[in-house]
């Protein structure tokens, strides 16, 4: 079946569709990871995005019931050079194509993904529509023209939990097939802006008794739980329109230790009086070098964000810029010791990606223990 990707600047890529049928609009972005496609697809931070994988062969180890980072696929589409229909892995129980079809997600293969990625790098990430079965460019262009895009919209509401729940699943050591459990020492409220499950596993395995609350939870509601710390999760889209979250974090600062990741980092920065802006094509992959300015060490990190904190907007002497992206020298972390708050832009929980930055969960535990 023919598949089409139409970009908002009129560029068309034609290939072979796989997965589900239909058409979906979203922001077209690229991820440089060689593996981790299942975790990427189920990461809520990819809500309303059409993901292009730069590695040419995707799907060769299939999918399984364990590697999901949430209950469903949040991406609007997946574009690859070649989708493997015959996976080989002891954990695989479904092909990538079958996985996408079951979740109602459109896949496109057989296009020159190098050309597409180069186009995005030059022109910047842009809106697009991916279609399987629909071949009329005119009809697709009409649908794409009505898509509002991500800037200025609150799409956290698309992915946050509706009800409060507890989390009690630790990290699993796959090589030894055992759970890495730790006795609970701290009561932590995790605010769900689109949280990944491996974050929850790592917090739990660092001694956190976890309660997950919706993004709309007020500071009063959170503080009523009498937590030892509050975690601000990752999530999708533009942080600036999520005003209720910024207000809540502002009211929490100084009353309880706060740790944020990705969108949580951006919301913390906005609550501290900073600004955010949109990157040209974002950071998405599992090999981004980040310098820890406190130690001088370089960490290879997993990343997924299209917006960034403006370092110059955080000029207060109480706010320390702790991490720097070595590819483009953008902000990757901040800390305010006075308020017992810190955050990073990247993903120390990995899944997928390296574990260089997992020490940050220990730092959160240490901050709560002081």
Question: How would you describe this protein?
Answer:
The structure is a single chain. The protein folds into two domains: 2-145, Glucose Oxidase, domain 1 (3-Layer(bba) Sandwich); 156-369, Class I glutamine amidotransferase (GATase) domain (Rossmann fold, 3-Layer(aba) Sandwich). The protein is 21% helix and 33% strand. It is built from nine helices and 21 strands. The longest helix is centred in the first third of the chain and has 11 residues, at 113-123.
Which range does the strand content fall in?
A: 25-35%
Mean pLDDT: 95
Strand tally: 21
User: Architecture of the largest domain, according to CATH?
Assistant: 3-Layer(aba) Sandwich
Q: Descriptors for this entry?
A:
alpha/beta, 9 helices, 21 strands, 370 residues, 2 domains, globular, Rossmann fold, ten-stranded mixed sheet
What can be said about this structure in brief?
Helix 7 crosses helix 8 (263-271).
List the helices and strands and how they pair.
Blueprint lengths: L1 E6 L4 E8 L2 E10 L5 H5 L7 E5 L3 E2 L18 E3 L2 E2 L12 H7 L3 E4 L3 H11 L2 E7 L4 H9 L19 E3 L3 E3 L4 E3 L5 E7 L4 H9 L2 E7 L4 H5 L5 E4 L10 H10 L5 E4 L1 H9 L4 E17 L5 E12 L10 E6 L5 E6 L4 E4 L14 H11 L1
Parallel strand pairs: 3-4, 4-6, 5-7, 6-8, 13-14, 13-15, 15-16, 16-21
Antiparallel strand pairs: 1-2, 1-9, 2-8, 3-9, 10-14, 11-12, 17-18, 17-19, 19-20, 20-21
